[in-house]
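Annex B. Sample input.
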Amino acid sequence: MSPPAVVDRTLNRRIAGLALPALVVLAAEPLYVLVDTAVVGHLGRVPLAAVAVGGTVMSLAVWFGTLMAYGTTGRAARRFGAGDRTAAVAEGVQASWLALTTGVLLIVFVQIFADPLCRALASDPQAAGAAADWLRIAVLGAPGLLLAAAGNGWMRGVQDTRRPLWFVLGANVLSAALCPLLVYPAGWGLTGSAAANVAAQSVSGALFLWAIARERAPLRPVPAVIGNQLLLGRDLLLRGAAFQACWFSATAVAARFGVAAVGAHQIALQLWFFAALALDAVAIAAQSLVGAALGAGDERSARAVARRVTVVGGVAGVAFAVLAAAGAGVIPGIFTGDRSVHDQAAVVWPWFVGMLPFAGVVYALDGVMIGAGDVGYLRTMTLVGAVGGFLPLIWLAYAFDWGLPGIWAGLALFTLVRLVALLIRWRGPRWVVLGASR
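Annex B, continued. Sample output.
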């Protein structure tokens, strides 16, 4: 038997080997959004507000992508852990068909409903109109975005996080270079931002299609398997719906406090998404390693991974908080020169920084439970946090004119409820179910 110190080092290397490439993949998309926000922010307050509103609607595609990636990772990892790589890849094939279908449906939906959706989220008519124009172009990248999510899911399940790194990073570097060129020298303005977004997502999706074709797995759609994925993803779907209700409501309430408030909210929220997805790199490692360990019938290894990622997630959250606190006086200026937006951002910043250490633990434990297939519990606790915490508080903030602090206090309560619920579950036995399927 290996000494505990050797086992610890081996586990650390396995976590790092999966988490570090996943970190780049997870950070690439929100980093591009931050670049896009900075480029558009210098066009003025109305374009910045338009991207805030349009980006909130586009988060529907991200929501579906998260469902596909996380659901596919858990299913593929269990099959991979049980020694059946072919079955793990087959999960990716069917998830890719689901991604294409969903992407096309999203395009049709947004082309029809862009105007009423943006008017509902933005009180300023000019910002609503600009958001709808941006959204109709940006949604054309939805199929590529969802294909990339499905591809990331099955590749993480077979513990391959290196190829996704190059696929996603290359596409987003291309788009980050295109965005300022199309917005300014080409003179496309806000349209250039949307076109660059579509370019990144389409290239990334094509690369993941190429990767799955190289596996030589049967590529025909199997409706029964897709149906099973939809049924098993039901809890993730409902969990994601709770998040979407929170983000939509937060943006809608922030917009009613004025253009400067919604601009500052957009900056802080995109930084929050960036930090959360970066912290989620540890959760990706947990999904893959926990799923594989449970698929192989190894409860001890699954629990060891769960303990380790909880510690690593907390440490990473503290590190992000330190960096955010140090940049409080500098970071908002990167996105816009408008002093009224800076003043609103200063109000939000203490909430943003204070939540990061707790978020690190929450996202790590989310990964453990998703890898274990315990998404029913995640669904319930997320709904409790949203319906009982976040949503009532931000609508009270609107009713009593509490401004952005009320909105971000709601987000803090949402995070706290999930933290307590996950720690209780982590300490118990009910998430540990052995075998190739749950």
